[in-house]
Amino acid sequence: MGSKLKSISLIGFGMVAGAAISLQLSALAQKDSARSLPLEKLGEFSEIFGLIKSDYVEPVDDEKLLTDAISGMVSSLDPHSSYLDKDALKELRESTEGKFVGLGIEVGTEDGYVKVISPIEDSPAFRAGIQAGDLITRIDSVPVKGLSIDDAVKRLRGAPNTKITLTIARKTEDKPVVVTLVRELIKQHSVKAKLIEPGYAWIRISQFQEPTVEEMVKRIQALYAQDPQLKGLVLDLRNDPGGVLPGAIGVSAAFLPKDVPIVSTNGQVADAKQVYYAKPEFYRTEELQDPLLKLPAAAKKIPMVVLINGGSASASEIVAGALQDYQRATIMGTRSFGKGSVQTVHQITENTGVKITTARYYTPNGRAIQAKGITPDLQVEETESGDSFNSLRTREVDLEKHLKNDKDAEKEAERAQDRVDELEEEQRLAGLAKKYKPFEYGSKADFQLRQALNYLKGLPLQVAQVAKAKTNATSKSNQKATKEAKGAKKP
């Protein structure tokens, strides 16, 4: 794996605290750095460096000063660019394999605190009840505010079987929540599947990893062994924060015609201008055999619904966007996260690297996902009452210094108003959230899954109505989308 890290690309979001991070195994070339440097600013840097060394209240190590300078330079670019020290680089290597030591949370920042984007299923954080949207204010009694995200993540990491205490601010609680966790080696199975009822199957991908495509094929084989006459499939990508790009391409290719474009990227570097196809060389790992050769042929044509929400990001948006563009599946749920940029990791020394944003990615029809997300064909909220807690989530567009959407700049004002509307909705939902009981995806309490099954059976959808004033518009929109989607079920 070490050789792969000379130059690799990422399509995940947030920082990682014992959670897998997304990798694209093809490299993006580095630009020629032999260009004129701003000598005046370099002289200013040198002078400030000297002042710190000579005048600061206590001695400061040269290596620490330079490392912090590099880290600050990179992290100032956007929320997804960062300097990688030895520990971060090691975790990056491990994460693609679906096993790592940590708490099992994907995190970002908000107001100087560490914000939980999503807990990984069956992880210490998940079992302890840590929720998406939680703000970590203290780590082992040390205040988080004022720490860089890199420093905070370093404190969250640690050796297996060591304890860590988190103080959490939660919108639904009046007082801080204090949770003690034990770090552990997390072996994450990224694919779950089961028959919901005769003829209808559910497959959940919680994160895209190197084994995901092969694992998904095995799950589909088992489903068809249980019921050879499957009539419909629900692909669940809710709260899937992303993962390896080959995984996203392989999952898309499983349900699309051979060799079609899945996703494209565009950036300054010539090698960042790429198109990725539904071909084995774009999705298989080091094994020579194409894992999709074992896929039951019926999977190419089975009617599908893809479930997404505000926690569906990056690689999961690539899959949803591709299946939507080819009208292969009906996308249902709520608008996705909107992380549509590619980060490249360049290994600088044996133990350090840098991760910088190098490209935006686009769906087969050329749609840019960055800061916008995937809009579902059918808008279905999370609960039967229509009280969606999805708007309490942070999305890409909410992140400070986020990369703009290059194809929809004229719609920035419209999206800004959408965010104002969401903030107003948050105030109403914050009170309701105290009464809200989280459910397990794939369970009988899963409202969105029930609507997906209704759609596959041709039954009426129970449209969630967030506000009475929006009821008619939402209903008409969903009725129109239902007709269009039903007429486009064929691959």
TrEMBL record:
<dbReference type="InterPro" id="IPR005151">
    <property type="entry name" value="Tail-specific_protease"/>
</dbReference>
<protein>
    <submittedName>
        <fullName>S41 family peptidase</fullName>
    </submittedName>
</protein>
<keyword id="KW-0175">Coiled coil</keyword>
<dbReference type="InterPro" id="IPR004447">
    <property type="entry name" value="Peptidase_S41A"/>
</dbReference>
<dbReference type="InterPro" id="IPR041489">
    <property type="entry name" value="PDZ_6"/>
</dbReference>
<feature type="compositionally biased region" description="Polar residues">
    <location>
        <begin position="471"/>
        <end position="480"/>
    </location>
</feature>
<dbReference type="InterPro" id="IPR029045">
    <property type="entry name" value="ClpP/crotonase-like_dom_sf"/>
</dbReference>
<dbReference type="Pfam" id="PF22694">
    <property type="entry name" value="CtpB_N-like"/>
</dbReference>
<keyword id="KW-0720">Serine protease</keyword>
<feature type="region of interest" description="Disordered">
    <location>
        <begin position="469"/>
        <end position="491"/>
    </location>
</feature>
<feature type="domain" description="PDZ">
    <location>
        <begin position="89"/>
        <end position="161"/>
    </location>
</feature>
<comment type="similarity">
    <text>Belongs to the peptidase S41A family.</text>
</comment>
<dbReference type="InterPro" id="IPR001478">
    <property type="entry name" value="PDZ"/>
</dbReference>
<dbReference type="Pfam" id="PF03572">
    <property type="entry name" value="Peptidase_S41"/>
</dbReference>
<dbReference type="Pfam" id="PF17820">
    <property type="entry name" value="PDZ_6"/>
</dbReference>
<keyword id="KW-0378">Hydrolase</keyword>
<dbReference type="InterPro" id="IPR036034">
    <property type="entry name" value="PDZ_sf"/>
</dbReference>
<dbReference type="InterPro" id="IPR055210">
    <property type="entry name" value="CtpA/B_N"/>
</dbReference>
<keyword id="KW-0645">Protease</keyword>
<feature type="compositionally biased region" description="Basic and acidic residues">
    <location>
        <begin position="481"/>
        <end position="491"/>
    </location>
</feature>
<feature type="coiled-coil region">
    <location>
        <begin position="399"/>
        <end position="433"/>
    </location>
</feature>
